[in-house]
């Protein structure tokens, strides 16, 4: 069986690489480093299929270093020693470039094994990871490396690779190939910025193509659509993309943008992540709408209950109602801010004795000269309010809650100013 198309079509020069213009365009820092021939240890951080492995291979070829590849999921300390054994051999007269894929799976001892050889420059390390290296790579490696972030490839850049791939397949097959209008664009836009995924789609489209009576292979737009559906989804419930999506979802609701909110809702539900949607929706209703429209909390809870009961795909209906409602509702985080300030005082140790009038016990010890609870029952007084001490002496006078500027809270504020006879 031949090698995958993605391997057969790998770029042979920096100009052939699609995407990553922020790193590899003429004059950019990484390109200048590569062209200088003095390659530092580097960490390539970014999603799959965006050129990390391809660029490492190009760097090795351009600098005439021996390229050794290891994968963090399978490599052992013995594999590292085997790479080290290649030093000072005819096979690696210009040194070794070690490409370590998925470095986040290397444990601390394995990474420490590399340090001696990174220090003396006998091994040049290019590590790649799909996770944030500042969270997953040990500081000893990071401090000796330069991190470059790779981005999903833009559709117009992927389109260049798709066209090149179809041309190569037609040349290899030695038979005419006809593409229905829009096929290449559909593949380029549906791969989610993953060039490798686009190359796989091109191969599948050729395999699924029909041969006309004239002996022409014909790739239809329908086939391209069937073979690329959902392929643009990037989602790992334990990875950065999960947290980025959840963050964008809540921030769009908080920012009162219903269009963005339902868009991120659709992405999360397409990935099947119903629990995360429900949790963040409830949090946003309480944290960001809050007292500006307090009735929203039971409404959103009812929508979440309905969604969990009916399941996907119908769950999208009550959730869409709730998401749009949260997005277009007035906003107030006054209650959120109040409890956060109170939590800060509690964590700081301000947990003084509860005032006697609020305590649960109704008797005093013999040593108390002022016996009695002295609790004033508010409903015994006009408007069900009477002034008395509620906070402990240690935090007496603290102000945690500040009135929000929305109509609901300002209405309550006016009411209590009238009842309490003071400017709140």
Q: Which helices and strands occur, and which strands form pairs?
A:
Layout: H1 5-8, H2 21-24, H3 29-36, E1 42-45, H4 52-63, E2 66-71, H5 77-84, E3 96-101, H6 108-119, E4 123-129, H7 133-136, H8 139-142, E5 146-149, H9 155-173, E6 177-179, H10 183-190, H11 195-207, E7 210-211, E8 217-219, H12 221-228, H13 240-254, H14 258-270, H15 274-289, H16 296-310, H17 316-328, H18 334-347, H19 407-420
Parallel strand pairs: 1-4, 1-5, 2-3, 3-4, 6-8
Antiparallel strand pairs: 7-8
Helix pairs in contact: 9-10, 9-11, 10-11, 10-12, 11-12, 13-14, 13-15, 14-17, 15-16, 15-17, 16-17
Entry summary:
This protein has 424 residues and is α/β, with parallel strands linked by helices. It is built from 19 helices and eight strands. Helix content is 48%, strand content 8%.
List keywords for this structure.
19 helices, elongated, alpha/beta, 424 residues, 8% strand, 48% helix, single chain
In words, what does this structure look like?
The protein has helices spanning 5-8, 21-24, 29-36, 52-63, 77-84, 108-119, 133-136, 139-142, 155-173, 183-190, 195-207, 221-228, 240-254, 258-270, 274-289, 296-310, 316-328, 334-347, 407-420; strands at 42-45, 66-71, 96-101, 123-129, 146-149, 177-179, 210-211, 217-219. The chain has 424 residues and is an alpha/beta fold. It has a 5-stranded parallel sheet, with helices on both faces. Strands 6-8-7 form a 3-stranded mixed sheet. The model has no long low-confidence stretch (mean pLDDT 86).
């Amino acid at each position: 069986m031949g090698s995958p198309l993605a391997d057969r079509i790998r770029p042979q020069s920096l100009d052939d690489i699609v995407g990553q213009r922020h790193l590899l365009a003429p004059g950019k820092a990484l390109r200048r480093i590569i062209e200088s021939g003095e390659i530092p240890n580097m960490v390539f951080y970014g999603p799959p299929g965006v050129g990390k492995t391809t660029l490492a291979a190009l760097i090795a070829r351009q600098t005439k270093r021996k390229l050794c590849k290891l994968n963090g999921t399978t490599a052992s300390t013995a594999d590292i020693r085997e790479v080290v054994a290649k030093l000072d051999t005819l096979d690696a007269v210009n040194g070794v470039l070690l490409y370590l894929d998925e470095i986040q799976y290397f444990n601390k001892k394995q990474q420490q094994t590399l340090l001696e050889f990174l220090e003396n420059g006998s091994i040049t390390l290019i590590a790649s990871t799909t996770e944030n290296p500042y969270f997953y790579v040990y500081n000893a490696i990071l401090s000796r490396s330069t991190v470059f972030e790779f981005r999903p490839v833009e559709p117009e850049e992927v389109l260049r690779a798709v066209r090149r791939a179809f041309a190569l397949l037609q040349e290899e097959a030695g038979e005419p190939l006809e593409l229905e209008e829009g096929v290449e664009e559909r593949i380029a836009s549906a791969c989610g910025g993953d060039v490798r995924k686009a190359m796989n789609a091109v191969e599948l489209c050729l395999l699924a193509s029909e041969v006309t009576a004239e002996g022409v292979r014909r790739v239809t737009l329908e086939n391209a659509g069937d073979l690329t559906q959902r392929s643009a989804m990037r989602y790992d419930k334990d990875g950065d993309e999960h947290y980025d999506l959840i963050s964008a979802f809540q921030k769009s609701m908080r920012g009162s943008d219903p269009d963005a909110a339902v868009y991120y809702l659709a992405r999360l539900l397409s990935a099947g992540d119903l629990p995360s949607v429900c949790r963040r929706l409830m949090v946003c209703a309480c944290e960001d709408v809050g007292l500006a429209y307090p009735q929203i909390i039971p409404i959103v809870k009812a929508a979440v209950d309905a969604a969990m009961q009916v399941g996907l795909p119908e769950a999208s209906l009550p959730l869409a109602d709730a998401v749009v409602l949260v997005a277009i509702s007035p906003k107030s985080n006054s209650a959120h801010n109040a409890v956060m300030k109170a939590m800060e005082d509690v964590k700081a140790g301000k947990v003084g004795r509860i005032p006697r009038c609020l305590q649960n016990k109704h008797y005093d010890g013999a040593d108390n000269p002022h016996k009695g609870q002295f609790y004033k029952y508010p409903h015994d007084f006009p408007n069900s309010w009477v002034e008395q001490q509620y906070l402990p002496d240690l935090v007496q006078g603290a102000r945690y809650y500040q009135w929000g500027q929305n109509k609901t809270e300002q209405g309550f504020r006016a009411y209590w100013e009238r009842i309490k006879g003071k400017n709140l």
